[in-house]
C-alpha cells in the first residue's frame, strides 16, 4: 500500500487593495487632482477651505491611501479653536471614484481618529453628511452652539469627542489656529529670473 501525503501549501498571499500612509510631498499633485475631481472647481471657495487656507495640517494627520502606486484617497486634519476649545477640523476626505467600494474612506477615517487620539487631541469637528459620519461617532450634539465664518448648514456641522467633555461649553466661532504653511523655497535660478523680470 502506498501512502499518499498531502502537501501542505502556504495560503496565497493576497495583496491589500490599498495602503494608508502619511502624506508625502510627492502626493501633492495627485491629491490636488483628486480633490478637484471630487469637489469641483469651486472647492477653494467653500467655508471650510477658507479655514485651511495658508495653514499646515496637524502634525502626523495628513494621510494618503495608495493603491498600486496611485493615490486613491486623502484625508487631513487641522488645528482649530472651537468656540475657545482646542479641536481638530477634519477635511477634506476624498476617495477616487474607482476605489469607493474598497472601504478607503472608512480606513482613512479610522486611521486618522486613532492617530489623533494617540496624540492626545480631544475632539474632531467636520462639515459633512451626518448619516455617513455617524458610524464613526460624529453627531450634532456637541456642535450646536458653534459657528463657521461663512455659509453652512448647521445639521452638517458634526463633532466627536475623543476625550469626554472636550467640547463641553464650546460656543461661538470656529477659527483656524494651526501653524502657517511654509512656502517652498525658490531655487537660486528662480530668484534670479524673477529679479531680472
UniProtKB/TrEMBL annotation:
Coiled-coil features, chain-numbered ranges: none
Domain N-acetyltransferase: 18-159
PROSITE patterns the record matches: GNAT, PUA
InterPro entries tied to this protein: Acyl_CoA_acyltransferase (IPR016181), GNAT_dom (IPR000182)
Protein name: N-acetyltransferase
Organism: Bradyrhizobium ontarionense
Lineage: Bacteria, Pseudomonadati, Pseudomonadota, Alphaproteobacteria, Hyphomicrobiales
